[in-house]
Specification:
The protein has about 575 residues and is an alpha+beta fold. It has 14 helices and 16 strands. Among the domains are: about 50 residues; about 120 residues, 2-Layer Sandwich (Beta-Lactamase); about 80 residues; about 120 residues, Heat Shock Protein 90 (2-Layer Sandwich), CATH 3.30.565.10.
């Protein structure tokens, strides 16, 4: 072909003078030199782009540099990289050339339909003169900038399609040509290597943080730290490792499949900490099945019934069981706010592995505490036996000996009186020791009974029969271990009275119950949206009983108006030793 073009050029210049013919040849030479220089510059630009995309190991930075380099190389106005998810849809969309205001106006990034979907289904380079003219085109959403020319190419990582590069609108106004397509294919190949390196680095860095966090968690648990405090730092660590906005840990309570959020970290953590989750919530389903559940928009997910997403607005999220499928100790929820980025498979796998490690550490710590508790219980049994078999018998024998001497000193009233007092003191001492033995054994039996948390859940469920709905319940703190038996009995009675008042008098449609331990106080708060307290009623024996129960334990009780309607009952008593 070049020979025919050269022959045609020779024919055209054969009739010209030598000087003119030389000028034409020089013009051709200059054009060829310009083309060579343009090709050289483009190769240099391509090399610079390859170096740029491979000069950083942060995956997000690498993805943005890939799109920027592609836009520069083919002189495009707009560029994007669509990262594919497991189901062949776009789960991340990195754009260049579109400002934040336009992105917000467009709304959610594309899912992978139209021309973008065509490239997903057929991962081969694609070049179009006009997007709208293609049969697969599905148009643009409202507010989207106009786009005509298009060139796209898949980005492969280890023979798997990671995503697709999309370039539109040549800056010069011309169409994308074969050179643009070839350059884009070359950049896509280099991008695949850079992405793979970034992912390997990110995975290694994540594993290093995971091991360090696992070691710290194990050390804290085995050092004797309270599990509640350790779980709080555990959720904070998971949130940092996953880059999440909110992480919660729910543990089982009661025997009907409910869970309670024991620890939370991040955005609006205080809103969900202590929240009781019904058996229909996603977390409860994960606890039962032992399988991971993911959602792209948790608050809008119809499966998220009665969970934390019903209290706070959540976007992308996933649930993982804490422990093995055969022995699930709790459920982790990792979530972002609405509009946040989706969690990658690597993050989900990392959190799952870390959760399994944490469950193992909790098991070891629990076994250690059980062993220590058994040592204490064995000591108590031994002390009780010794008190009964040795001390009481000796005291009893001593009292009998003294009583036998009373007849010998009957003629000495003062001595007889003293001996009688000693016998009575010994008898009282024997009674005290026997009560101590009983208290030791009764304390051990109470340890094996149901805790306050389970009793509170049962109380709110019983109240549902008279209220017509189940009150919302939040529980925080060491309610099963730091509250004495007397306080447990009193708080149960107070809660029952408050819920009964809400059902009989308030005609409420919502009731929120909060039980927590803060600043060495056990606090109960019951708030409803009912009619409030009628000022015409002066006799309020139920409220007086609440106040009396609090004062007997050195605490206080108050009743106030709720906003915009209803009543708030607050009851607080100082904690006392259970022993």
């Amino acid at each position: 072909m070049e020979e025919r073009a050269q022959g045609s050029r020779d024919a055209e210049t054969s009739g010209l003078s030598p000087q003119l013919r030389l000028d034409v040849l020089l013009d051709d030479l200059q054009q060829q030199v310009a083309q060579v220089r343009a090709a050289r510059d483009r190769v240099h630009t391509l090399l610079d782009a390859v170096l740029a995309v491979g000069s950083d190991l942060d995956l997000e930075v690498v993805l943005h540099r890939i799109v920027e380099s592609a836009v520069t190389l083919v002189d495009a106005q707009y560029g994007a990289l669509g990262v594919l998810g497991e189901e062949g849809t776009i789960k991340q969309f990195v754009t260049v050339g579109i400002d934040e205001e336009t992105i917000a106006r467009i709304g959610h990034y594309p899912r992978g339909e139209g021309i973008l979907g065509l490239l997903i289904r057929h991962p081969e380079p694609l070049r179009l003169a006009n997007l709208a003219a293609h049969p697969a085109s599905s148009g643009f959403p409202e507010g989207h900038p106009p786009m005509t020319g298009f060139v796209g190419a898949p980005v492969r990582v280890r023979d798997q399609v990671f995503g697709n590069l999309y370039l539109t609108n040549k800056q010069s106004g011309t169409e994308f040509d074969t050179d643009d397509e070839a350059v884009l294919r070359t950049l896509a190949a280099a991008a695949g290597v850079a992405i793979d390196n970034a992912r390997l680095y990110d995975d290694a860095h994540r594993r290093q943080r995971w091991l360090a966090a696992s070691n710290e968690l194990t050390r804290s648990l085995l050092s004797g730290a309270e599990p509640a405090a350790v779980l709080g730092s555990f959720t904070a660590t998971v949130r940092e490792m996953a880059g999440a906005d909110l992480v919660t840990l729910a543990v089982p309570v009661g025997d009907k499949g409910e869970l309670v959020i024991e620890a939370a970290s991040g955005t609006q953590a205080e809103e969900v900490r202590g929240l009781l989750l019904p058996a229909t919530a996603l977390a409860a389903k994960v606890y039962t099945s032992g399988e991971t559940i993911t959602s792209e928009a948790m608050s809008a997910d119809p499966r998220a019934e009665g969970g934390s997403a019903s209290v706070v607005e959540l976007g992308p999220a996933f649930f993982v069981p804490l422990g093995t499928r055969e022995h699930v100790r709790g459920v982790l929820q990792v979530a972002n706010v609405p509009g946040g980025v989706l969690f990658t498979d690597a993050v989900i796998d990392m959190v799952t592995g870390f959760g399994n490690q944490a469950a193992l550490a909790l098991d070891v710590a629990e076994h250690r505490r059980d062993t220590e508790r058994m040592v204490v219980l064995n000591d108590r049994d031994r002390i009780a036996r010794d008190l009964h078999d040795l001390v009481i018998q000796r005291l009893f024998a001593g009292a009998l000996s003294l009583q036998s001497t009373l007849g010998r000193v009957s003629d000495r009233p003062q001595v007889s009186e003293r001996i009688q007092r000693v016998v009575e003191d010994l008898d009282d001492t024997i009674k005290i020791i026997r009560s101590t033995i009983y208290a030791l054994r009764e304390h051990d039996r109470s340890r094996r009974g149901s805790g306050l948390r389970a009793q509170l859940v049962a109380a709110t469920e019983r109240a549902a029969e008279s209220l017509g709905f189940t009150p919302a319940l939040r529980m925080t703190g060491l309610l099963d271990t730091a509250v004495s038996a007397e306080q447990v009995e009193q708080v149960q009675a107070v809660l029952g009275e408050a819920l009964s008042n809400a059902a009989r008098h308030a005609h409420a449609t919502t009731v929120d119950v909060t039980v927590e331990i803060t600043d060495a106080f056990l606090k109960l708060r019951v708030a409803d949206n009912g009619r409030g307290i009628d000022p015409a009623i002066t006799r309020r024996s139920g409220l007086a009983n609440l106040r009396k129960r609090a004062e007997e334990l050195g605490g206080s009780s108050s009743v106030s108006a709720n906003q915009p309607s209803g009543t708030v009952v607050e009851w607080a008593v100082p904690l006392s030793s259970k022993d």
